[in-house]
Amino acid sequence: MNINKLAQKTYYKFSFVEGNQHIANEYALKCILRIIEAFNVKDVLEIGIGIGCIADTVLEYSQNIKYTATEANEFCLNAIKENVSQIKRVELYSNLAEIPEDIFFDLIIIDGTDESLGKLKRLCKNETIIFLEGGRPIQVQILRSFFLKAFYTQMISYNKNPNYGPFSSEDWCGGGQLIFPNPNFKMKFFYWKERIATYIKRKYRKKK
Ligand SMILES: C[S@@+](CC[C@H](N)C(=O)[O-])C[C@H]1O[C@@H](n2cnc3c(N)ncnc32)[C@H](O)[C@@H]1O
Q1: N or C: which end of the chain has fewer CB within 10 A?
Q2: What is its EC number (predicted)?
């Protein structure tokens, strides 16, 4: 299935699930799949799996992805058992500090808070990519202070939220924040394309 269609399908599914007020926005799901496809991501860490909207999307996208996540909330830990069809593929920890020191990730998705964010650097490979769902300015600032050579851009949408789901269809569909801590040539190319797209989308949004 096309990645945009898959993101729409999962967002629609989670639009009718109990406790969905904090799920990832639909455009963030599309961005995550686009990153995974472009960089052939195999090892994903999600900080704050919540009720499982991102995890369900990614696990359905590929059988070859190893998925690790953190979550401490009791309601969410129960909810993911129901919501994530392939929950058996998820390695769960309560927080970042619990993750063994010898595991490294291609993509780290941040969609929750973690007091041990400082531990994130040790989970990175040289070419790890970091994506933060939504705005998250404080976490972006902290991460950029860890990775001084990082390339950072927002990823925003041309569209408003769908008329189903927890977010108002009057508001722009959020997207997220993309950080390449140690960008290689391909990452720099991806970054510039996103930066230009974000600039154009901002102008378009202002006119609307
Ligand atoms: C933005 S949410 C994560 C959403 C998740 N990535 C998803 O797409 O389903 C961040 C945190 O909020 C908490 N949370 C999310 N949904 C909740 C709910 N319905 N009730 C209580 N806490 C919730 C969880 O601890 C979660 O890690």
Answers
A1: C
A2: 2.1.-.-
Ligand 1 pocket test target in 51, 80, 90, 136 with most atoms within 8 Å of CB: 51
Instruction: Give per-residue pLDDT as tens, 51-87.
Output: 999 999 999 999 999 999 999 999 999 999 999 999 9
- From 21, 54, 73, the mutation candidate for ligand 1 (largest count of ligand atoms within 8 A of CB) is 73
Q: What is the CATH number of the domain that holds 50?
A: 3.40.50.150
Closest CA relative to residue 70, chosen from 105, 37, 26: 105
pLDDT tens readout for residues 6-37: 999 999 999 999 999 999 999 999 999 999 99
The tally of domains found in the chain comes to 1
CB neighbourhood size of 164 (10 A): 11
The token duo for 172 is: 């722009």
